[in-house]
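Hello forum,

I keep getting stuck at the same step: I have a sequence, I want structure tokens, and every attempt I make locally crashes halfway through. Rather than fight my setup again tonight, could one of you with a working pipeline run this one for me? It's a single chain of 370 residues.
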Amino acid sequence: MTTQARQIPLNYDRLLKGFVDILSVDSYWGNEDRVVAIIQPRLEEVGVHFKRDKIGNLIGLWPAHGKSSQPIMLNAHMDTVQPTPEMRPVVKEDAVYSDGSSVLGADDKAGVAAIVESVVAVHEAGLEHGPIDLVFTVGEDVGQYGADAFDPNDIESRMGLVLDSGGPVGEVVNQQAGSYSFTATFHGKAAHAGIEAAEGINAIAMMARAVDKMPLGQINERTVSNVGIVSGGQANNICPPEAHITGQARSLNQDELDRQMDAIRRAAEDAAVAFGGRVEYEQSGRFKATQFSEDHPAICLADIAIHASGLKPQHVSTFGGSDAQNFNEKGIETTMLGCGYHNVHSVDEYMPHEALRQLCQVSAQLIINA
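Reply #2:
Ran it on my machine without issues. Output:
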């Protein structure tokens, strides 16, 4: 990995136009083809070879030019959250805004636009670079569907950088929380609440006892936990025979996450025993906690690119989910980079021009310094 410290000339007018073009199409889950139709021809003009996988991810290989190095993957997702009735970005002097009727979609079309323009800029400058895998995923905001279905054998890279974090440009995520979900169904005994109250076993009371004993909320600076959905009961005069809860825990430390899930399970089981009922408990670990050292190659490359862009790297942790988690689970060691957008997932979303410039410069520096 060599360092090239000079800034790469960027055509901001073209970057902005490309950004606004993809912002102007509704690409909620299932509609990402509208983004593909814009970005694929532009990148094919500079030599990127593309294919689509079964779920719709756009996967490109940009062959090396004058440099022999290990390939890296650059990723951003093409979808947005709703509402997306009509996407009408408004370009103002300081930033690009939503018109208030929909989300802007800078999450994560800022990442998409920055990657596209950085490839074009490096090509136009005639700069040497190693092989670059470009992965534009679908369905991230609705459950990381594209990254979940992604086959790592479709690319050569085993190191990746995801342009999809909400912090300022210059942030590098070196810790990402693991995430487990759980469900518990409590079984009691139905009885008439007026005539045979003593015969019933109240599943809602059982559930309440369990929730009361579960460690929830901000456990410490590394671990959080939540019960998000509760349900149960049939009528006011029936002792409820069944109640149901679902929840999740996240932690930056895998051992703590495992202990947290054990405590939740024990609380459910102890409550069932105390009330003379039973509980069906299930948990699923979607992602394990990920932590990269300061000298991890992905972190080092990100730091080099950020420094070369005239910024100072900041290493941060996140409890949020991203496609990076799937890539890490699949053996592609991947970090996330801050994109600089604001008020994401809302109609007040906006993307400052300066952040867009910085993000594109960082992406270009990743390409030439890999």
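The radius of gyration is 24 Å. If your local run keeps crashing, start a new thread with the error log.
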